[in-house]
Amino acid sequence: MKILIVGNLGYVGPSVVKQLRASYPSAILIGFDIGYFAHCLTNVHVLPETRLDRQIFGDIRNFPGELLQGVDAVVNLAAISNDPIGNQFENATMDINFKAAVDLAEKAKEHGVKTFVYASSCSMYGQADDSARKETDKLNPLTAYARSKVAAEDALEKLADSDFAVTCPRFATACGWSDRFRLDLVLNDFVAGALVNKHISILSDGTPWRPLISTSDMARAIEWAAGRSASHGGSFLAVNAGSNNWNTSVLDLAEATARVIPGVEITVNKQAPPDKRSYRADFSLFEELAPYHQPLASLPDTVKTMMEALMEMGFADPDYRNSNLMRLNVINRHLLAGRLHSDLTWVK
């Protein structure tokens, strides 16, 4: 088996590579990534890419089709996957998350690839009522990132057929440890604040709903999707990926963090305008189709793992929101140093 993982040098990629290598020890695994965050390693003792057979650096917007020769499955993780970055670089977000993703899928189909996995997002539900959103419910994308995911899914559905199975796991909000950890995610931010400042500051009133999923469980879902055939779920499948147990309010996340890291003060902004990004997701279809790849991580264990890993790496920066653990900071520092053009292509 030969699997190509595009966008493997980000936050989720190391967990996906580890999972695929464990499940397919004799497979040929190839990584392809532009390398924005390749240097953002955290508490790593072994370079995660040593599990690959080959690492290639390149831009998905100019993907070399010959790399797809003999590939059985493509996993596309490449994305501008952060709302602040997406808002600042909206054109690049659409080019990478939508146009380049569809171009990659078209090339994959032309080269006889049987399975294509596109990492999508529950964020496309946007603002919703109290009922948990199902895959058939109306989409309400509120950000450039969410809009790019909707556009990509629409186009990918047209490419799918009995010989080209396309799976779009609509992931809940990512959280948990990674060899390229980031703190611009709600639970991760709470853990960092609790650890170094003994304080969790909720910028909203704490009531918005968020479904979450750990990086390790995202990797398990990716493994399932990469092995899915068109006969199991249809030639095109968009499915909420996560667990009903992890539908929680922002305030509940903060309180769960404080139960693991004691002595933490929690403050909410009661004067904040309503956060429109509030939704729950229904993960029943995922549970039905992937019973052996359901999320295993618990919220307390995920918090504990992050806390212990941060402590092991000597994390003690109270101003961490200005550090390279925030993805927008990394991009802006590349730009300031003249390493990136404004369209987020590398300066040669």
Task: Describe what this molecule looks like in 3D.
The chain has 348 residues and is an alpha/beta fold. It has one domain (2-336): Rossmann fold (3-Layer(aba) Sandwich), CATH 3.40.50. The protein is 34% helix and 17% strand. The chain is built from ten helices and 13 strands. The protein has helices at 13-23, 83-88, 90-110, 144-159, 186-197, 215-226, 250-260, 284-289, 299-312, 327-336; strands at 2-6, 28-33, 54-57, 73-76, 115-118, 120-121, 165-171, 173-175, 199-202, 209-214, 236-241, 247-249, 265-268. Helix 5 (186-197) crosses helix 7 and helix 5 packs across helix 9. The longest helix has 21 residues, at 90-110. It is globular. The mean pLDDT is 95.
The CATH homologous superfamily is named: NAD(P)-binding Rossmann-like Domain
CATH topology: Rossmann fold
What summary fits the major beta sheet?
A: 8 strands, parallel
Which CATH architecture? Answer: 3-Layer(aba) Sandwich
CATH class reads Alpha Beta
Radius of gyration: 19 Å
Provide the low-confidence segments as ranges: none
Number of strands: 13
> How many alpha or pi helices?
10
Class inferred from helices and paired strands:
alpha/beta
Shape: globular
Q: What is the total number of structural domains?
A: 1
Distance between the termini: 35 Å
Query: For the residues shown, what is the average pLDDT?
Result: 95
SSE topology string = EHEEEHHEEHEEHEEHEEHEHHH
- Provide the β-strand percentage band: 15-25%
Helical amount: 25-40%
